């Protein structure tokens, strides 16, 4: 076996899902590579796609909403390898796949999944091909029969693919893959000790990397007004300049610990009582995996709305409008009701899938072993 993971760096979730599967493959000593499909595009096309996505979700959500719903129209399948406007963009990726001859390819974004489907129909590829849907809904672009198997977040997504003509026998509802670190044995007390959080404090993990700086500061200003024995662990994101600005903004309140990019999110989630975040598919899945109640806000129209709805309907989250006063009120409501927090944690654990990546790898290895015997 030699496995390739293909993702697209449009948002962080597709890459994190690929990394989770990669970790499990490496634990099993299976050779694996992980590549961003945007790196294979000609010239400035990759940065342009990334910039366009960020621009729409940050500054023109009405445009993203219209684009998402237009692309979800079921009149015809999404066929990028045959599209006049897209097929010329991907020959470098096809050459790479032919040259490297991977035994298995797993796509965690719908564009490489659709490309692989088209190329396989044209007898361009011989690899086993799999698709991992990384949200709690299946957009039309995921709905393409022709791959070996589909892994999805929940049964409702499997039924959505089934309604599009994909045999249910080729779909497994295993959950969205999260890093094995989320299922490692680490107690709440041990996690708190690592982050200097006192055992009698209420700890909130606040993920602001998906927010513009002004909105992040509005959120933090609201949290400063939360009274009581509360500690805030705040992710500022990967930008060092942004991290320094947020540190300066919170410097007057010692309850705030600000950090930039960190691989220690699993530890922080296990230390926290609540996470506050935009409802990305991976963030929601990670919180569910450790039984962490969520306060969700500012969903991207389409996929993140579905993620938030799934978690809220199952009792693991509350969804609020992002605005001054709303953040503080939501935190106060939950912190004043320990019974509700306990119930939300139990609900999260009930629907969480911390071992999704292992299930995916086991299914692929079993499939490969079966073929080897034939």
Q: Total number of helical segments?
A: 15
- Low-confidence runs of at least 5 consecutive residues: none
Structural class: alpha/beta
CATH topology group of the largest domain: Rossmann fold
In the residues, how many domains can be counted?
2
Secondary structure: number of strands: 12
Shape: globular
The whole-angstrom Rg is 21 Å
Just give the CATH class of the largest domain: Alpha Beta
Helix amount, in percent?
A: 40-55%
From the N-terminal CA to the C-terminal CA, the straight-line distance is 16 Å
What's the assembly state of these chains? Answer: single chain
Q: What's the CATH H-level superfamily name of the largest domain?
A: Glycogen Phosphorylase B
Q: Could you spell the SSE succession in H and E letters?
A: EHEHHHEHEEHEHEHEHEHEHEHEHHH
Q: What strand line-up does the widest sheet have?
A: 2-1-3-4-5-6
Give the second-level CATH assignment, the architecture of the largest domain: 3-Layer(aba) Sandwich
Mean pLDDT: 90
Largest sheet composition: 6 strands, parallel
Quickly describe the structure.
With 374 residues, this protein is α/β, with parallel strands linked by helices. The chain is built from 15 helices and 12 strands.
Detailed description of the structure:
- The chain is of the alpha/beta class and 374 residues long.
- The chain has two domains: 3-178 and 354-373, Glycogen Phosphorylase B (Rossmann fold, 3-Layer(aba) Sandwich), CATH 3.40.50.2000; 182-351, Rossmann fold, CATH 3.40.50.
- The protein is 45% helix and 14% strand.
- The protein is built from 15 helices and twelve strands.
- The protein has helices at residues 13-27, 45-59, 61-71, 91-100, 110-121, 155-163, 188-194, 213-224, 240-249, 265-271, 281-289, 303-313, 326-335, 338-351, 356-373; strands spanning 3-7, 32-36, 104-107, 128-132, 149-152, 171-173, 202-207, 230-235, 256-259, 274-277, 294-296, 317-319.
- Strands 2-1-3-4-5-6 form a six-stranded parallel sheet, sandwiched between helices. Strands 9-8-7-10-11-12 form a six-stranded parallel sheet, sandwiched between helices.
- Strand 10, helix 11 (281-289) and strand 11 (294-296) form a beta-alpha-beta unit.
- The protein is globular.
- The model has no long low-confidence stretch (mean pLDDT 90).
């Amino acid at each position: 076996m030699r496995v390739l993971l293909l993702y697209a760096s449009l948002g962080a979730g597709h890459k994190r899902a690929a990394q989770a599967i990669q970790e499990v493959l490496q634990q099993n000593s299976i050779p694996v590579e992980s590549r961003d499909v945007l790196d294979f595009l000609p010239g400035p096309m990759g940065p342009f796609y990334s910039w366009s996505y960020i621009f729409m979700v940050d500054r023109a959500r009405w445009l993203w909403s219209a684009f998402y719903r237009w692309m979800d129209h079921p009149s015809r399948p999404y066929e990028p390898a045959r599209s006049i406007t897209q097929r010329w963009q991907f020959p470098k990726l096809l050459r790479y796949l032919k040259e490297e001859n991977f035994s298995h390819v797993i796509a965690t974004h719908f564009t490489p999944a659709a490309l692989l489907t088209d190329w396989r129909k044209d007898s361009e590829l011989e690899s086993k091909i799999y698709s991992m849907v990384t949200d709690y809904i299946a957009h039309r672009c995921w709905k393409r029969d022709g791959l070996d198997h589909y892994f999805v977040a929940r049964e409702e997504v499997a039924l959505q693919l089934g309604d599009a003509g994909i045999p249910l026998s080729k779909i497994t509802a295993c959950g969205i893959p999260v890093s094995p670190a989320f299922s490692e044995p680490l107690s709440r007390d041990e996690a708190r000790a690592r982050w200097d959080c006192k055992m009698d404090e209420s700890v909130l993990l606040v993920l602001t990397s998906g927010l513009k700086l002004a909105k992040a500061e509005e959120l933090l200003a609201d949290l400063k007004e939360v009274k009581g024995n509360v500690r805030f662990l705040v992710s500022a994101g990967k930008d060092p300049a942004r991290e320094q600005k947020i540190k300066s903004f919170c410097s007057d309140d010692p309850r705030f610990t600000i950090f930039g990019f960190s691989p220690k999110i699993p530890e922080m989630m296990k230390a926290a009582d609540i996470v506050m975040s935009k409802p990305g598919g991976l963030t929601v899945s990670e919180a569910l995996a450790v039984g962490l109640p969520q306060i969700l806000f500012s969903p991207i129209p389409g996929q993140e709305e579905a993620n938030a709805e799934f978690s809220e309907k199952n009792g693991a989250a509350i969804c609020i409008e992002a605005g001054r006063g709303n953040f503080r009120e939501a935190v106060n409501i939950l912190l004043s009701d320990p019974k509700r927090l306990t119930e939300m944690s139990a609900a999260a654990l009930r629907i969480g899938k911390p071992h999704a990546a292992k299930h995916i790898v086991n299914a692929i290895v079993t499939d490969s072993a079966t073929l080897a015997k034939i």
